[in-house]
Amino acid sequence: MIERTPILNIATHAILVFGLILILVPIWLAFVGATLSLQEVNSAPIELWPGDQLWVNLKEAWALSDFGQKFVNTLIVATGVVIGKITLACITAFALVFFNFRGRMLIFWMIFITLMLPLEVRIVPTYAVAANALTPFQTIMDWTGISWLITTVSGIEVALEWNLLNSYTGLILPLVATATGTFLYRQFFLTIPDELVEAARMDGVGPLRFLWDILIPLSKTNIAALATIMFVYAWNQYLWPLLVVTDRANYGMVVVQLSDLVPDQLTTGGGTPTWHLAMAATLAVMLPPIAIVILMQRWFVRGLINTDK
Amino acid sequence: MRRAYFKFSWIAAALLAPQLLIIFVFFYWPSAQALYWAFTLEQPWGGGNTWVGFDNFRNVLSDPYYWGSVRVSVIYALATTVLAMTMALTLAIFVDRQLSGYKAYRVAIIWPYAVAAPAVGLAFQFVFNPGAGIFSYINTIAPGWWDLSKYPWQAVTAIVVAGAWKQVAYSFVFFLAALQSIPRSLTEAAAMDGARPLRRMVDLQLPLLTPTFFFLLVINITDSFTDSFGIVDTLTGGGPFRATDLMVYKIYADGFRGFDYSGAAAQSIILMLLVMALTFVQFRYVEKRVHYT
């Protein structure tokens, strides 16, 4: 860098290599476990070098967990979250930044507060809402007497119901309901010079046209960063899909499937633990998001730093 | 502040509506619902909820298992945060020297962020398994000494190591970004004054990292409260003897396995307050008080 420091350079490499070993060892062991046969993986001093069973194990784990459909489901949910999140974040931030109206700051804070409580913290009541997403409206109508009014006037019993359990919507919507991307977009929109807005208005461009033709092309970086982060976030969801999906065959997600592969008394029934299959499935499940992070590294880092989680 | 605006019209309202609707249904309503449940008790044979005041909280707070859960959550939060941040800071400072191959180091440290928590838990259960993993070596020397499913402290150690492993990447990204934003002129000026690299690390880089450090401190602690579910569920399942029954895990177990909505809601409210307090500290004090620009 600035001066020559041969000894420190060697020390630097040594420290970094040591750190990398600490980080890589668990995954390496998991990988080795995935390449061994049932006997090998359970023999007392474990192998440290991969065997030749990786493909066999992957195939068996794949069939055992019915991964085909679940990978498709996970991909659908992750894509849905990415698209929903980006769209919502973009239009909300746009309305908050480029329009002046009363109550703007109030709405801003209402959205902002959602950052404070992650889904895990309010999991029990959110689950209750997912069982019938129209509960809030039903309750409000009952309380305000609107449903009584409708019943007496038209004779129709008001019973709103929209069950989100075991559906893609149920998996996607609650994950979209945070302010994560909105602030990324807000920060970006605030850097757009006033002159650009003025020029657009002078040319008679309406707000939607301005958003579509000028802001969205300018925000490609934002979209890439947000997409990377949200894809990884959605793919790795565990607690929410675990609760919302009881019909695992049709709506199961891959990460949730891992909980069935834990080789304990329940799954093996006292038999030999099938670690080789569990590790093969673990590898298969974690590969897609890792690939995304490595391939989109630049956007990923930018997204991570700029998004308030 | 912005001077040029579009005129407010139905367009703005239409653009805001979806987001507001979604956060109302999936955020505000459930949060209010949690409050309602926390102060009421569901009747055993239907018939709605009765108001019970602070009874649910009293029950939760007088439950020794709950305090056990709080204790292990705090241990987990502090231990993972310290481990992960120490590791991340050390690695970031040395990666920042930008010797040859630093990009390879960077990728290798960042990717664990993408590994799902349950996958981390499962991988570490294999690693720590007394019969099959690397710890089987220990058990060939001292049979029965290492067994996660028998000894609480070993189970806690296991989730802490797994949790810290998962957190390193996040802190690393932030530390590295902060280090790279230190103006080069500062480093050069220090070098001119005769400060060698190690001296610059201690007296220049570390002080300039203070804001990032406090930011990450709060984020890591908050994350460890909320993000730990997957690791616990696949690694220890809350056991042995409830030794790794972290707060989120207990809420899940009480609410969905024990069907005690009121108790789970009261616990949720306590956890919400805790997370909100931490976030508040972060915005109010950390972001404002500590800066060197």
Question: Explain this structure to me?
Answer:
The complex is a heterodimer of chains A (about 300) and B (about 290). With about 300 residues, chain A is an all-alpha fold. Chain A has helices at about 5-35, 40, 55-65, 65-100, 105-115, 125-130, 135-145, 145-155, 170-175, 180-190, 195-200, 205-220, 220-235, 240-245, 250, 255-260, 265-270, 275-295, 295-305. In chain A, helix 4 runs parallel beside helix 9 (about 170-175) and helix 13 packs across helix 19. The mean pLDDT of chain A is about 85. Chain B is an all-alpha fold and about 290 residues long. Chain B has a single domain (about 50-290), classed as MetI-like fold, CATH 1.10.3720.10. Chain B has 13 helices and 2 strands. Chain B is flat, with a radius of gyration of 24 Å. The mean pLDDT of chain B is about 85. At the A-B interface, helix 1, helix 4, helix 5, helix 6 and helix 9 of A face helix 1, helix 3, helix 4, helix 5 and helix 6 of B.
Q: What would you report as the Rg of chain A, rounded to the nearest angstrom?
A: 25 Å
Number of strands of chain B: 2
CATH A-level architecture of one domain in chain A: Orthogonal Bundle
Structural class of chain A: mainly alpha
Question: What strand line-up does the widest sheet of chain B have?
Answer: 1-2
CATH architecture annotation of chain B: Orthogonal Bundle
Question: What's the CATH C level of one domain in chain A?
Answer: Mainly Alpha
Helicity level of chain A: over 70%
SSE ordering of chain B:
HEEHHHHHHHHHHHH
Number of helices of chain A: 19
The helix fraction of chain B, in percent, is over 70%
User: At the first level of CATH, what is the class of chain B?
Assistant: Mainly Alpha
Structural class of the secondary structure composition of chain B?
mainly alpha
